[in-house]
Structure formats: structure tokens, C-alpha cells
Design a protein that fits this description.
9 helices; alpha/beta; 34% helix; OB fold (Dihydrolipoamide Acetyltransferase, E2P)
Length: 253
């Protein structure tokens, strides 16, 4: 009996002559195997791309779904209240981020990184986050597991480091520029922005700093280079990492 006739007669695929040593086949004439192969393919849920602010606004609808967004690393969270959530410190590590929409050279943004994410311990994602420096920028994919007091709590599944990111220099010099703007020192503020722009920045951050620089330039030109005195407030962002000079050793008599 030929192969086709045997299958039509109800022979089990494993007792079919081809299954016990005749010619190999590619599955094209094996409908049972094709169905089993198709059933073995696991389809991952679709990922919805959002900004963090969009994710917060739509968190209830997105609960349980896979999401993708971009964030900027602030620091690892050493202790947190798990409340009644699944995100206990035994199984998860927590990290705090600035949303990609935040600009940490602004004091109000620097002091309030609004994103908290959870990565399961001993996963590739957690290891990548653990060794990343501050201001590292990531495209994150994960599942929105819970919403607590209106805030999305996402379990991180994969992270991808992005080459365009802020640096400490960007934040320091951008912050100085804003402080100088508040004193009306437009020309000096413009020069600080020029330094802040030297990093490989994401487009929206570059555009924001360029807007600030152009505004400083216009105001400086309108003032004829003069300084416009204003009330100031101190910069509360990071300070340059400058070591104090070592004391000179006392000369021996």
C-alpha cells in the first residue's frame, strides 16, 4: 500500500512505513505532523508602544498587556513597600527611572523620577539594569501587572540600551544654564547650553535644549550683551565630580 493510501486508511503516523526507515519527508504530505507543528508555535501577545505619560493615562485598560516604552535610569531602589503586590524583594529588584519625557536638568524633574519598574532577579533584564550607569536610556518591554494609586507597576521582560542618552555633563550644564537664565545672564547661559548639547542626545532632549539656547541668544541680542538682574534660586542637581586639592606636605627642616 502506498504512503497516501495508508494515511487515508487511518494508519497512525508513527507506524507509517516512512516513520520506520523508508524515505525521509519534509512534512508537506503529512497533514497530522503539520497540524502538530502549527500547534507547537507559541504566539506572544502584541506589544503596545506608549510614552510613560500615555501609559499612566491608560493604565486601567492596559492592565495585563505587554507594553513598550523608553525610560532613563536614576538608581536602584534598595527598599520599598510591596503592599499586597507580587513585587516582593525576594523575587524582584526595583529600579527608579525618569520618564523619557522628563528633563533632569530641570530641578523639578531631577528631584522626581516618576517611573518605578520591577525586574525578576537573575534574569538578563535585571543584570543589564544592575550594571548600567545613571542616565542610561532603555527601551523596555514588559507586562503591566498592577496599578497602584494610579501608577503602573510593570514587570520588565527585556531591555535594550539606546545610544542616544543624557550624560551627567548634559544635566550639570543644562542646570547651570537655567540658573543663569534666572539671573538674566543670557550669554553665559547660552554657552552652558552649547556644552550640554555636546552629548549624543535623543531628539526631543536636543530640541528642548536648542530651544533654550535660541531663547538665550535672542534675549542676549535684545539686551545688547547687558545682564538682566533677577532673583535667583540655587541649583539642586548634581555637582561636578571634582576632588578637593590635597593638602601640601609640611616641608622637613
Amino acid at each position: 500500500m502506498g504512503a497516501r493510501t495508508a494515511l487515508e486508511a487511518g494508519a497512525h503516523p508513527l507506524t507509517h512505513p516512512r516513520a520506520v526507515g523508508e524515505a525521509p519527508f519534509d512534512g508537506a504530505d503529512d497533514p497530522v505532523g503539520a497540524v502538530e507543528a502549527a500547534a507547537s508555535v507559541v504566539t506572544r501577545p502584541a506589544v503596545e508602544a506608549r510614552t510613560w505619560n500615555e501609559l499612566r493615562a491608560d493604565a486601567t485598560r492596559l492592565l495585563g498587556r505587554r507594553v513598550r516604552f523608553v525610560v532613563q535610569l536614576h538608581a536602584k531602589v534598595e527598599r520599598w513597600n510591596t503592599y499586597l503586590s507580587r513585587f516582593g524583594p525576594r523575587d524582584f529588584a526595583a529600579y527608579q527611572f525618569w520618564a523619557d519625557e522628563q528633563f533632569p536638568w530641570r530641578v523639578e524633574d531631577f528631584e522626581a523620577p516618576i517611573v518605578r519598574l520591577f525586574a525578576r532577579r537573575e534574569t538578563d533584564a535585571e543584570e543589564e539594569l544592575a550594571r548600567a550607569p545613571r542616565y542610561a536610556r532603555f527601551e523596555v518591554e514588559g507586562t503591566l501587572r498592577e496599578v497602584f494609586l494610579g501608577e503602573p507597576w510593570v514587570e520588565v521582560e527585556t531591555v535594550r540600551a539606546l545610544p542616544e542618552r543624557l550624560t551627567e555633563g548634559t544635566v550639570i550644564h543644562g542646570g547651570r544654564a537655567l540658573s543663569l537664565v534666572e539671573t538674566g545672564m543670557w550669554k553665559l547661559a547660552e554657552s552652558e547650553v552649547d556644552i550640554a548639547l555636546q552629548a549624543n542626545l535623543p531628539r526631543h532632549a536636543r530640541e528642548e535644549l536648542e530651544r533654550l539656547r535660541d531663547d538665550c541668544r535672542r534675549r542676549s541680542d535684545s539686551m545688547g550683551g547687558r545682564t538682566e538682574r533677577r532673583e535667583t534660586r540655587p541649583w539642586k542637581g548634581p555637582a561636578p565630580n571634582v576632588r578637593p586639592p590635597k593638602p601640601r606636605e609640611r616641608e622637613l627642616d
